Amino acid sequence: MHFIDLFEKPNLIAAHRGDRSHFPENTLASLRGAVGKCDFVEMDVWLTKERVPVILHDETLGRTSDVETFEAFRERLPWRVEDFTLEELKRLDVGSWFYEKDPFGLIREGRVVPPPKNERIQKIPTLEEVLIFSKRHGIFLNLEIKDMHHYASDEEVLETVFDAIEKTGTASILLISSFHSDYLPLCKRLDSGIPTALLQKRRIRNLPELLKRVEADGWHPSRKIVDPATVRMLRDAGYFINVFVVNDPEERKKFFKWGVNGIFTDLL
Ligand code: G3P
Ligand code: CA
Q1: How far is the CA of 143 from the centre of ligand 2 (A)?
Q2: Considering its fold, how many domains does the chain have in total?
Q3: Tens of pLDDT along 205-245?
Q4: Structural domain includes residue 77
Q5: 44: closest CA among 34, 31, 29, 54?
Q6: Which end of the chain is more exposed for a tag (fewer CB within 10 A), N or C?
């Protein structure tokens, strides 16, 4: 089965950054945690200083790691991913913050039981590690490629990501999305069989023209910009639509009624 075949099924559920309400986001723990609870998993991709693709959401390391405890990294504030080598990133713990901050309040409610301290540690996964894990466990994966045009050329970003895809033989389990629309046609040049989607937070007037120009197969809008007429128009034109981030069950029902294919949620 190919990722695109998922769209034959209605009402798809995507795990946003893995099962991030039960485990630290964008880690192998949150990827493993999402197995059996969703139709596909979404994760975010950045490149390290030496251009290795890694999985992390923020452009900087402060929120989800213990980078501030490293004396050697003090002068690198604001701790941008692009300023760290893979070896340096792998020294960080991106797991323990979750149990200290309890971002979804599930620990307070007793619905998440923190493991012993030494088992809370998680490492930033490389894209390759996530692809291998996903292939092994039959997980369909939406890779969101973060906008890195300020420090790497579009070609370099895509070639690096596609090297990992080719090396791991994972093209069939993937959907690629980005807010940086210029990445999407390049994806098609590198492997036309991988579905692509344009991410959007703001409404634009010429959406159908833009989707066509960037050769997208789908649209991934914020829940704040979706309306039933646009859903109908794009679905009739053959695009799939997955909406982010929908945590309210009533809102989820509303979007499915309008005809969207799927929703990204934090609450599995
Ligand atoms: O891919 C959907 C969603 O993840 C986009 O927003 O900020 O959570 O990466 P963000
Ligand atoms: Ca994302």
Answers
A1: 8
A2: 1
A3: 999 999 999 999 999 999 999 999 999 999 999 999 999 99
A4: no
A5: 54
A6: N
